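Structure tokens please, single chain.
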Amino acid sequence: MLVSTPAPTSPAPRVGVVVTDSYPLEDLDHDTAPLVAALRARGLEAGPVVWHDQSLDVASYDLLVLRSPWDYPDRLDEFTAWLAHAERTTTVLNDPALVRWNLDKRYLAQLEALGVAVVPTTYRTRADEVVCDLAAFPAGALVVLKPAVSAGARDTGLFAADDPAALELAERIVAADGVVMVQPEVPELSSGAEKALYLVDGELTHAIGKGALLAPGGGLIGGVYQEHPQPVPTTADEEAFARRTLAAVSEVTGLDVPLYARVDLVDSAEHGIVLIEAELFEPALNLHVAPHVTDVVAAAIDRRARAVARHDRAG
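Here you go.
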């Protein structure tokens, strides 16, 4: 009698969720634990990995998903070197080429050139240029200054245009070989009307309001970076704006729709709907206030991981 032999089963794809090893109490990672649990429930071998762990073997993973390596601004050269090593060795999402493009907020000028409305911005590498920008604002006007490479509102301030502290911040950014972004205050931002629209594989999943962050005169409200995320509704115009933004990103970079994206926008009286930032690298997904999105993200990662694993086996 012939006995059939079961076909060998392929091992589950191995997915590393890229994090760091410590977070400030006011800015914790609320996403990784539920996301890892959802990935494991789908049969993936998944777990968090600290990007700067010297024992990390990136080649042992089918897919690395960048989630919360939030200490990268303090060790940018180290991070970009690690990212280059990781992409030579395995598949990383979002695409490292997209991440490198997204690290410098001068990408906003490229999107603006394609018709995406942004907060009016100048980009300056010299303090005397900032002096001229500040002098051009009307008396009593408020301005925002920040570096082009930053995260978590670091070195970002809201000032009166004639406040000496504004120029002091600009000089500090320039002294660190940075680029200073100079923007007019958008009152709706100062009142907490910013919305973060999240898209997974190009589809809108949820939107979060974070509240106001910047205190007039420089610094952060309460002295620390602390968001107060709450689910918020979106309008059809806001959703269309987010999708146009992602389309423009693909046009500029030549890359496919990213696994995940956060489009920060505000609907302003003066400028209409404008882009504040397109976060395509390590946005907090705020799954603790939008738990229904957890499996949507896990399903998207599952599809990508299994496609990568099939390709690798076929190769």
